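Q: I'm writing up a methods section and want to include an example of the input and output format. Could you take the sequence below and give the corresponding predicted C-alpha coordinates, formatted cleanly so I can copy it straight into the document?
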Amino acid sequence: MAAEGQAPTAGEYIVHHLAHLQNKKPEGPFDLSVFNFDSLFFSILLGIVTCWILWAAASKATSGVPGRFQAAVELLVEMVENQAKGIVHSAESRKMVSPLALTVFIWIFLLNAMDLLPVDLIPAVWHLAGPALGLPDYMRVVPTADLSVTMGLSAGVLLVCLYYNAKIKGLGGWIHELFSAPFGSHPVLWPFNFAMQIIEFVAKTVSHGMRLFGNMYAGELIFMLIALMGGALASVSLGTGIGLAIGHIIAGTAWAIFHILIITLQAFVFMMLTLVYIGQAHDAH
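A: Here is the clean output for your methods example:
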Protein backbone atom coordinates (compact mmCIF):
# COMPACT_ATOMS: atom_id res chain seq x y z
CA MET A 1 0.00 0.00 0.00
CA ALA A 2 0.95 3.67 -0.13
CA ALA A 3 3.12 5.30 2.50
CA GLU A 4 1.51 6.37 5.76
CA GLY A 5 -0.75 9.38 5.25
CA GLN A 6 -0.70 9.15 1.45
CA ALA A 7 -3.56 7.98 -0.74
CA PRO A 8 -2.79 4.80 -2.70
CA THR A 9 -2.34 4.95 -6.44
CA ALA A 10 -4.84 3.20 -8.69
CA GLY A 11 -2.48 0.25 -9.09
CA GLU A 12 -1.85 -0.04 -5.34
CA TYR A 13 -5.59 0.17 -4.65
CA ILE A 14 -6.40 -2.69 -7.04
CA VAL A 15 -3.47 -4.86 -5.93
CA HIS A 16 -4.47 -4.42 -2.29
CA HIS A 17 -8.10 -5.31 -3.01
CA LEU A 18 -7.05 -8.43 -4.93
CA ALA A 19 -4.93 -9.77 -2.05
CA HIS A 20 -6.40 -12.51 0.16
CA LEU A 21 -6.29 -12.85 3.93
CA GLN A 22 -3.91 -15.82 4.07
CA ASN A 23 -2.07 -17.80 6.72
CA LYS A 24 1.24 -17.18 4.91
CA LYS A 25 2.68 -16.05 1.60
CA PRO A 26 2.59 -18.71 -1.13
CA GLU A 27 5.95 -20.28 -1.91
CA GLY A 28 4.82 -21.22 -5.42
CA PRO A 29 1.72 -21.37 -7.63
CA PHE A 30 0.72 -24.77 -6.17
CA ASP A 31 1.52 -24.27 -2.49
CA LEU A 32 -1.26 -26.34 -0.88
CA SER A 33 -0.34 -25.18 2.63
CA VAL A 34 -1.76 -21.69 1.95
CA PHE A 35 -5.36 -21.01 2.96
CA ASN A 36 -7.46 -18.04 1.83
CA PHE A 37 -9.34 -17.48 5.06
CA ASP A 38 -11.63 -14.82 3.59
CA SER A 39 -12.83 -17.12 0.80
CA LEU A 40 -13.27 -20.00 3.24
CA PHE A 41 -15.23 -17.86 5.70
CA PHE A 42 -17.69 -16.42 3.19
CA SER A 43 -18.08 -19.74 1.35
CA ILE A 44 -18.94 -21.60 4.57
CA LEU A 45 -21.17 -18.77 5.81
CA LEU A 46 -23.17 -18.63 2.58
CA GLY A 47 -23.27 -22.42 2.44
CA ILE A 48 -24.97 -22.34 5.84
CA VAL A 49 -27.35 -19.64 4.58
CA THR A 50 -28.18 -21.82 1.55
CA CYS A 51 -28.98 -24.79 3.77
CA TRP A 52 -31.09 -22.56 6.02
CA ILE A 53 -33.07 -21.21 3.05
CA LEU A 54 -33.88 -24.72 1.83
CA TRP A 55 -34.67 -25.94 5.36
CA ALA A 56 -36.93 -22.95 6.03
CA ALA A 57 -38.81 -23.53 2.77
CA ALA A 58 -39.26 -27.24 3.51
CA SER A 59 -40.32 -26.72 7.13
CA LYS A 60 -42.89 -24.04 6.25
CA ALA A 61 -44.30 -25.77 3.17
CA THR A 62 -48.10 -26.09 3.18
CA SER A 63 -50.58 -27.74 0.88
CA GLY A 64 -52.64 -24.59 0.66
CA VAL A 65 -51.90 -21.32 -1.08
CA PRO A 66 -48.14 -20.80 -0.72
CA GLY A 67 -46.59 -17.58 0.49
CA ARG A 68 -44.13 -15.61 -1.59
CA PHE A 69 -41.08 -17.30 -0.10
CA GLN A 70 -42.48 -20.81 -0.57
CA ALA A 71 -43.65 -19.98 -4.09
CA ALA A 72 -40.20 -18.68 -5.05
CA VAL A 73 -38.47 -21.80 -3.74
CA GLU A 74 -41.05 -24.04 -5.42
CA LEU A 75 -40.38 -22.30 -8.75
CA LEU A 76 -36.66 -22.95 -8.32
CA VAL A 77 -37.25 -26.59 -7.37
CA GLU A 78 -39.53 -27.11 -10.37
CA MET A 79 -37.06 -25.43 -12.73
CA VAL A 80 -34.15 -27.56 -11.52
CA GLU A 81 -36.22 -30.76 -11.57
CA ASN A 82 -37.35 -30.12 -15.15
CA GLN A 83 -33.76 -29.54 -16.24
CA ALA A 84 -32.61 -32.67 -14.42
CA LYS A 85 -35.33 -34.81 -16.05
CA GLY A 86 -34.15 -33.80 -19.50
CA ILE A 87 -30.49 -34.64 -18.77
CA VAL A 88 -30.34 -37.35 -16.09
CA HIS A 89 -32.81 -40.04 -17.18
CA SER A 90 -32.48 -42.23 -14.08
CA ALA A 91 -35.27 -41.41 -11.63
CA GLU A 92 -33.29 -43.05 -8.85
CA SER A 93 -30.24 -40.85 -9.52
CA ARG A 94 -32.36 -37.71 -9.65
CA LYS A 95 -33.30 -38.22 -6.01
CA MET A 96 -29.80 -37.02 -5.17
CA VAL A 97 -28.82 -35.11 -8.32
CA SER A 98 -31.78 -32.69 -8.31
CA PRO A 99 -31.26 -31.49 -4.70
CA LEU A 100 -27.52 -31.28 -5.42
CA ALA A 101 -28.13 -29.10 -8.48
CA LEU A 102 -30.57 -26.88 -6.54
CA THR A 103 -28.04 -26.43 -3.74
CA VAL A 104 -25.28 -25.64 -6.24
CA PHE A 105 -27.44 -23.01 -7.96
CA ILE A 106 -28.48 -21.18 -4.78
CA TRP A 107 -25.04 -21.43 -3.16
CA ILE A 108 -23.15 -20.10 -6.19
CA PHE A 109 -25.75 -17.37 -6.73
CA LEU A 110 -25.18 -16.15 -3.16
CA LEU A 111 -21.39 -16.38 -3.55
CA ASN A 112 -21.63 -14.35 -6.76
CA ALA A 113 -24.01 -11.85 -5.19
CA MET A 114 -21.29 -10.74 -2.77
CA ASP A 115 -19.95 -8.76 -5.73
CA LEU A 116 -22.98 -6.44 -5.45
CA LEU A 117 -21.81 -5.14 -2.06
CA PRO A 118 -19.93 -1.82 -2.19
CA VAL A 119 -16.30 -2.57 -3.04
CA ASP A 120 -14.86 -0.91 0.08
CA LEU A 121 -17.61 -1.75 2.61
CA ILE A 122 -16.33 -4.97 4.19
CA PRO A 123 -12.62 -4.20 3.52
CA ALA A 124 -13.11 -0.88 5.36
CA VAL A 125 -14.60 -2.69 8.35
CA TRP A 126 -11.75 -5.19 8.27
CA HIS A 127 -9.27 -2.30 8.04
CA LEU A 128 -10.35 -1.40 11.58
CA ALA A 129 -10.79 -4.91 12.97
CA GLY A 130 -8.00 -6.86 11.25
CA PRO A 131 -4.92 -4.94 12.44
CA ALA A 132 -6.48 -4.66 15.91
CA LEU A 133 -6.53 -8.47 16.01
CA GLY A 134 -2.99 -8.67 14.71
CA LEU A 135 -4.13 -9.92 11.29
CA PRO A 136 -3.13 -8.59 7.83
CA ASP A 137 -5.23 -5.79 6.35
CA TYR A 138 -6.52 -7.86 3.42
CA MET A 139 -10.09 -8.96 2.75
CA ARG A 140 -11.78 -10.22 -0.42
CA VAL A 141 -15.50 -10.92 -0.24
CA VAL A 142 -16.31 -12.66 -3.56
CA PRO A 143 -15.37 -16.35 -3.14
CA THR A 144 -16.12 -17.19 -6.78
CA ALA A 145 -13.47 -14.66 -7.86
CA ASP A 146 -10.97 -16.95 -6.11
CA LEU A 147 -9.69 -19.69 -8.42
CA SER A 148 -9.14 -22.11 -5.54
CA VAL A 149 -12.86 -21.93 -4.67
CA THR A 150 -14.18 -22.43 -8.20
CA MET A 151 -11.73 -25.24 -8.89
CA GLY A 152 -12.73 -26.84 -5.59
CA LEU A 153 -16.37 -26.71 -6.66
CA SER A 154 -15.59 -28.22 -10.06
CA ALA A 155 -13.43 -30.91 -8.42
CA GLY A 156 -16.41 -31.79 -6.23
CA VAL A 157 -18.54 -32.21 -9.34
CA LEU A 158 -15.82 -34.43 -10.82
CA LEU A 159 -15.94 -36.70 -7.75
CA VAL A 160 -19.72 -37.02 -8.13
CA CYS A 161 -19.28 -37.91 -11.81
CA LEU A 162 -16.69 -40.57 -10.97
CA TYR A 163 -19.06 -42.01 -8.36
CA TYR A 164 -21.91 -42.31 -10.87
CA ASN A 165 -19.63 -43.76 -13.52
CA ALA A 166 -18.74 -46.58 -11.14
CA LYS A 167 -22.27 -46.96 -9.76
CA ILE A 168 -24.20 -47.00 -13.04
CA LYS A 169 -21.74 -48.97 -15.18
CA GLY A 170 -20.19 -51.06 -12.43
CA LEU A 171 -16.55 -50.71 -11.54
CA GLY A 172 -15.49 -53.31 -14.08
CA GLY A 173 -17.69 -51.84 -16.80
CA TRP A 174 -16.35 -48.36 -16.20
CA ILE A 175 -12.73 -49.54 -16.28
CA HIS A 176 -13.49 -51.37 -19.51
CA GLU A 177 -14.95 -48.14 -20.95
CA LEU A 178 -11.87 -46.17 -19.91
CA PHE A 179 -9.72 -48.41 -22.10
CA SER A 180 -12.13 -49.19 -24.94
CA ALA A 181 -13.71 -45.81 -25.77
CA PRO A 182 -13.74 -43.82 -27.94
CA PHE A 183 -11.55 -45.58 -30.53
CA GLY A 184 -12.39 -49.25 -29.91
CA SER A 185 -11.45 -52.20 -27.72
CA HIS A 186 -8.35 -53.41 -29.58
CA PRO A 187 -5.44 -53.72 -27.09
CA VAL A 188 -3.25 -51.46 -29.26
CA LEU A 189 -5.77 -48.66 -28.75
CA TRP A 190 -5.98 -48.98 -24.96
CA PRO A 191 -3.32 -46.36 -24.14
CA PHE A 192 -4.87 -43.84 -26.54
CA ASN A 193 -8.38 -44.46 -25.21
CA PHE A 194 -7.24 -44.06 -21.60
CA ALA A 195 -5.33 -40.88 -22.41
CA MET A 196 -8.38 -39.40 -24.15
CA GLN A 197 -10.62 -40.27 -21.20
CA ILE A 198 -8.25 -38.63 -18.72
CA ILE A 199 -7.92 -35.54 -20.92
CA GLU A 200 -11.71 -35.33 -21.11
CA PHE A 201 -12.13 -35.47 -17.33
CA VAL A 202 -9.38 -32.89 -16.78
CA ALA A 203 -10.70 -30.55 -19.50
CA LYS A 204 -14.24 -30.66 -18.12
CA THR A 205 -13.08 -29.95 -14.58
CA VAL A 206 -10.71 -27.11 -15.50
CA SER A 207 -13.14 -25.40 -17.89
CA HIS A 208 -15.98 -25.78 -15.36
CA GLY A 209 -14.06 -23.92 -12.66
CA MET A 210 -12.25 -21.45 -14.91
CA ARG A 211 -15.46 -20.25 -16.59
CA LEU A 212 -17.02 -19.18 -13.30
CA PHE A 213 -13.77 -17.71 -11.97
CA GLY A 214 -13.03 -15.70 -15.12
CA ASN A 215 -16.46 -14.06 -15.25
CA MET A 216 -16.57 -13.16 -11.57
CA TYR A 217 -12.96 -11.96 -11.47
CA ALA A 218 -13.62 -9.65 -14.42
CA GLY A 219 -16.78 -8.33 -12.77
CA GLU A 220 -14.89 -7.64 -9.55
CA LEU A 221 -12.22 -5.69 -11.45
CA ILE A 222 -14.83 -3.53 -13.18
CA PHE A 223 -16.41 -2.64 -9.84
CA MET A 224 -12.94 -1.61 -8.59
CA LEU A 225 -12.39 0.61 -11.63
CA ILE A 226 -15.77 2.26 -11.07
CA ALA A 227 -14.83 2.79 -7.39
CA LEU A 228 -11.59 4.46 -8.52
CA MET A 229 -13.66 6.89 -10.56
CA GLY A 230 -15.40 7.98 -7.36
CA GLY A 231 -12.12 8.06 -5.47
CA ALA A 232 -10.71 10.60 -7.92
CA LEU A 233 -13.26 13.23 -6.87
CA ALA A 234 -11.01 14.71 -4.17
CA SER A 235 -8.14 15.41 -6.57
CA VAL A 236 -9.93 17.30 -9.36
CA SER A 237 -11.64 20.64 -9.86
CA LEU A 238 -15.28 21.20 -8.94
CA GLY A 239 -16.60 20.94 -12.50
CA THR A 240 -14.61 17.83 -13.26
CA GLY A 241 -15.59 16.40 -9.89
CA ILE A 242 -19.29 16.85 -10.62
CA GLY A 243 -18.83 15.07 -13.94
CA LEU A 244 -16.94 12.24 -12.28
CA ALA A 245 -19.59 11.94 -9.56
CA ILE A 246 -22.38 11.68 -12.12
CA GLY A 247 -20.38 9.21 -14.19
CA HIS A 248 -19.55 7.20 -11.08
CA ILE A 249 -23.20 6.90 -10.07
CA ILE A 250 -24.41 6.08 -13.58
CA ALA A 251 -21.63 3.56 -14.27
CA GLY A 252 -21.97 1.89 -10.87
CA THR A 253 -25.75 1.60 -11.12
CA ALA A 254 -25.70 0.34 -14.71
CA TRP A 255 -23.01 -2.24 -14.05
CA ALA A 256 -24.71 -3.43 -10.84
CA ILE A 257 -28.01 -3.94 -12.68
CA PHE A 258 -26.27 -5.77 -15.52
CA HIS A 259 -24.23 -7.77 -13.02
CA ILE A 260 -27.42 -9.18 -11.48
CA LEU A 261 -27.94 -10.95 -14.80
CA ILE A 262 -24.32 -12.14 -14.84
CA ILE A 263 -24.33 -13.62 -11.34
CA THR A 264 -27.61 -15.42 -12.02
CA LEU A 265 -26.47 -16.67 -15.41
CA GLN A 266 -23.15 -17.94 -14.07
CA ALA A 267 -24.89 -19.84 -11.27
CA PHE A 268 -27.31 -21.33 -13.81
CA VAL A 269 -24.51 -22.31 -16.21
CA PHE A 270 -22.51 -23.97 -13.44
CA MET A 271 -25.61 -25.89 -12.35
CA MET A 272 -26.44 -26.96 -15.91
CA LEU A 273 -22.90 -28.16 -16.57
CA THR A 274 -23.06 -30.11 -13.33
CA LEU A 275 -26.21 -31.84 -14.58
CA VAL A 276 -24.69 -32.43 -18.02
CA TYR A 277 -21.50 -33.98 -16.65
CA ILE A 278 -23.45 -36.22 -14.26
CA GLY A 279 -25.80 -37.14 -17.10
CA GLN A 280 -22.83 -38.10 -19.26
CA ALA A 281 -21.64 -40.38 -16.45
CA HIS A 282 -24.89 -42.34 -16.92
CA ASP A 283 -24.33 -42.81 -20.66
CA ALA A 284 -22.24 -45.65 -22.06
CA HIS A 285 -19.94 -45.09 -25.01
